[in-house]
Each structure stands twice: as structure tokens, then as C-alpha cells.
Amino acid sequence: MQVKVIFHCLYRELAGVTYKYLELPEKTTLLDLVREMEMIYGRELTGQLIDYEKNEIWSQMALAVNGRIISDLDKFTYCLNENDEIIFLPPALGG
Questions:
Q1: Residues 61-85: pLDDT tens digits?
Q2: Do you know which InterPro entries this protein is assigned to (predicted)?
Q3: What single DSSP character describes residue 52?
Q4: Homologous superfamily of the 2-89 domain (CATH)
């Protein structure tokens, strides 16, 4: 299946692209997607997306699929579908 991955801010700088289309197997989860991205972009990018000590996607990062923000619990198990659009949004900074 094909999905479109969109990068914003720091993630765009690290990936070197604004978006990328990826071919993935059926029943790929968001965590599987991030692991696939590690093969393409290396740990410089995925280190910003995954807490390697806990083997989890960082909870501070926002993930949206087809315009819908995915909850922290669903970040690990959400299954992607053909033509999904996944947006990686860095943590918001405040003061």
C-alpha cells in the first residue's frame, strides 16, 4: 500500500524533504512506519520520533493521520490504510 508522509519544522530539516510517498505492507502500524523511516533517514530523524529506551513513539510529538490527531496510546498500534496521509508535528513550545 502507498502512504504519504509529511514532515514539518525540524523533521523536515532532518529528512531533507517536505513529504515522501512510501510503499508499505498491509497492516503496517505507525510504529512500523517510524522503523521503516529509520532505514531511509537514519537515527538522526527517528531519534526525534522514538524513545529507544522504551521502544515507543515519543508522546510529546503529535501525529495526524488524514487530518486527525492520533492519541498517545494509538500512536503505537494504529494501522495505516492505502493512501493515508501521515503528518509528523514536533512538540509545541511554550513559555
A1: 788 999 998 877 677 789 999 999 9
A2: Beta-grasp_dom_sf, Mopterin_synth/thiamin_S_b, ThiS/MoaD-like
A3: T
A4: Beta-grasp domain (3.10.20.30)
